[in-house]
Automatic annotation (TrEMBL):
Keywords: Glycosyltransferase, Transferase. It comes from Albibacterium profundi. The keyword Repressor does not apply. This is Polyprenol monophosphomannose synthase. Belongs to the glycosyltransferase 2 family. InterPro entries: DPM1-like, Glyco_trans_2-like, Nucleotide-diphossugar_trans. It comes from the Bacteria. It holds the Pfam family Glycos_transf_2. Residues 6-172 form the Glycosyltransferase 2-like domain.
């Protein structure tokens, strides 16, 4: 078993799932993969199960009955990982918007200085490929808004390409994480910083998916817009001593 686990939530990713699994397993250093599938009707889970025979004790799947939200999928995966001996636990999308080669860079950061390493689209300008301008602006200014309200210095607060050292997820009260959409990403970063962990951004190039359908929507950003204010206010009354 590797000391590193890549958690990939899926919903209707049959076009991407085998390719992303094979790419991760082709890296020069070993990574295990946990797929958390939310009842994909397109057969994503069946593809993963067929690959488990080829990659025993490396590829795992947890199936949920319905689409329950990105945040709950990751929380499910985090709890699964903490029951095992993984030291480095990753979030990554299935659609190749995150380059699997960058897993090595994120883990290297956590092996040397970071408790949480973020693959950042905005640490060196705007490194986004094939996104429409309205979506680039929405994402960029969402992070600026988070910085304004929370006073954290993270440039890419909504980033979903992350490496955690085990101790971060052991310290955060996962059952108290309240957001289920992309605001979940903001809450995890904010909470880690409140606990005093060293959160580092690593520049990446984000490439929009070429297969499958995006799950992003304006509703997700509305959740984040209002939720950030509540999160900041609630933090004033919470004890973050670990």
């Amino acid at each position: 078993m590797s000391d590193s686990l890549v958690i990939i939530p899926t919903y209707n990713e049959k076009e991407n799932i085998e390719k992303i699994i094979r790419k991760v397993f082709s890296l020069p250093d070993p990574f295990d993969i946990l797929i958390v599938d939310d009842g994909s009707p397109d057969g994503t889970a069946a593809i993963v199960k067929s690959l488990q025979e080829e990659f025993p004790n490396m590829l795992y799947i947890e199936e949920r009955k319905s689409k329950l939200g990105l945040g709950t999928a990751y929380i499910h995966g985090f709890k699964w990982a903490l029951k095992r001996d993984y030291e480095y636990i990753f979030e990554m999308d299935a659609d190749f918007s995150h380059n699997p080669d960058d897993l090595l860079r994120l883990r290297d950061s956590c092996q040397h200085e970071a408790d949480m390493a973020i693959g950042s689209r905005y640490i060196k300008g705007v490194n986004v490929v094939n996104w429409p301008m309205n979506r680039v602006l929405m994402s960029y200014f969402a992070s600026a808004y988070v910085r304004l309200i929370t006073r954290i210095k993270i440039k890419d607060a909504t980033a979903g390409f992350v490496c955690y050292r085990r101790k971060v997820l052991e310290t955060i009260s996962l059952d108290k994480i309240r957001f289920v959409g992309y605001a979940f990403q903001i809450e995890m970063k904010f909470t880690a910083i409140q606990y005093g962990f060293n959160v580092v951004e690593i520049p990446i190039i984000f490439t929009d998916r070429t297969a499958g359908v995006s799950k992003m929507s304006t509703r997700i950003f509305r959740e984040a817009f209002l939720g950030v204010i509540h999160m900041k206010m609630n933090s004033l009354f919470r004890n973050y001593k670990s």
